[in-house]
Model the fold of this input.
Amino acid sequence: MGCTSCATSTNGQPKGCRNNGTCGTDGCNKLTVFDWLSNMSLPGNQEPFNAVEVRFKNGRKHFYQNPEKISLNIGDVVATEAANGHDIGMVTLTGELVRVQMKKKKESNDIKELPKIYRKATQKDIDVWQRVRDKESEVQKRSREIAIRLGLQMKISDVEYQGDASKVIFYYTAEERVDFRELIKDFARAFGTRIEMKQVGFRQEAARLGGIGSCGRELCCSTWLTDFRSVNTAAARFQQLSLNPQKLAGQCGKLKCCLNYELDTYLEALDEFPKSDVKLLTEKGVAICQKSDIFKRMLWYSYENEGMNWYPLDVDKVNEIIALNKKGKKVVSLEEFTVEIEQPEEEIFSNVVGQDSLTRFDKPKRRRNKRRNKKQNQSRNRNRNSQKNA
Done:
């Protein structure tokens, strides 16, 4: 967090700093870059880098030149050059770190090719900007109704107005190509402004909308992940994960990006393991691989005619047997190389949280039965006495 006094109000806006998400340090926003060069002075006779990074809605960022050399700090609201008119954004980075970010994102180092920053946003600019931002949810609802009425197979996931309200951008996802020429005409008549349609992928849609993942933390794509690499089922196979689509898929409906995080470590560990289709030749018979465990560095083999009997072997022992087989030699049997695995004692039930026995409802309590029998005997004695007296 950029400011320690931030909190969340009932409508989701930050309170405490009273900046409503426009903190001066940009610490309350998504995909924030920490300016670790801010406290360092430039060498003599070197002018500061005259470009800034500006953030727009949902983490969209662009680089702009500052031809007028306006004094800008992180968190300043500025009016930037757009295709038609101007847009309103927030400065997220200044100084030499902008040069580093441009190099990282493979942008041209020529500042003159960048669009310009016109000025710091006036109160009039901010009022127009806030007014159109408040209209976006209603526009998105109406746009979805129009798309459904036209029968288009698409989903409008987000709407973004340009800062001067001269254009509105509709972000949509679709499985196939969509002919939205009639849709644009209906949008122009309904909203009275220029329309731009942008198709985004399902991962980009999840990044824009945000959410909480199965790990309990905010989605990586909406906080720090910017490059979306392809993920395939081979990553799950190498990590010996169950190919369950419900567990491996993220909120975007695609395979989770975190499957690639530890993949290189698994591939490096698997270099020591032989391929699963390699057979071991012994005098007792041919053995095939049944299972492998990367963490324990163990493999389980069984003879072809005894598939139910598995023998645990260490990776080094397996590689030793394979080396002997390549020289034309056979080992006597797998039993000579078997590793003994200690089986921990399994507890049927462990009272770790102070709970009662799981069988507490199986047997009735004796105390209640005694009381019940005692009452029944007393009632019987009373009936007998009453009969005798009669």
